[in-house]
Amino acid sequence: MRRSPLVFPLGVALLLAVAATLPAPSRAEWAAVPDVNGLVIKQVGQFAVLVYSLAHRKDLAFVGVVRGQTQEAVGGGTNYRLVVAATKPGGDGSTAEYDCLVWGVPGSRSDTWKLRRFRKIQS
């Protein structure tokens, strides 16, 4: 049985037309973290420092979260944009601030979380 050559292109054109009329996914706004000492926020900051330290063989210790924002991630989960303070253990006690971006789902296993960015803020 032979198919009509117009059936496939017509079907594709129809799908493209429908897709073009769908609304674009909305991008959630960033919201300030009201309590940087909240348990989840502190854990996200600790996660960022630990993962960076292990991946780059840097000896950093988490001090605290200075400020942060959260955003619902497209496809699920939450984006955390945090400024964390960290220090070198055994050093002179000085701290540095780092800008980090973490994605994760609160309450999920730690191996599902991702450190997207971690960079020192030059002062």
Distance between the termini: 73 Å
Q: Largest sheet, if any?
A: 5 strands, antiparallel
Contiguous helical run count: 2
Q: Radius of gyration from the CA trace?
A: 22 Å
What percentage of amino acids are in beta strands?
A: 25-35%
Provide the low-confidence segments as ranges.
Answer: 6-26
Strands side by side in the biggest sheet: 1-2-3-4-5
Helical residue percent?
25-40%
**Morphology call:** globular
Q: What would CATH call the architecture?
A: Roll
The ordered string of helix (H) and strand (E) elements is HEHEEEE
- Find the CATH topology: Nuclear Transport Factor 2, Chain: A
Total strands: the figure is 5
Your description of this structure?
By secondary structure, the chain is of the alpha+beta class. It has one domain (31-120): Nuclear Transport Factor 2, Chain: A, CATH 3.10.450.10. Helix content is 27%, strand content 33%. It is built from 2 helices and 5 strands, in the order αβαββββ. Strands 1-2-3-4-5 form a 5-stranded antiparallel sheet. It is globular and about 40 Å long. The chain starts with 6 loop residues before the first helix and ends with a strand. Residues 6-26 have low confidence and may be disordered. Keywords: Protease inhibitor, Signal, Thiol protease inhibitor. Belongs to the cystatin family. Phytocystatin subfamily. This is Cystatin domain-containing protein.
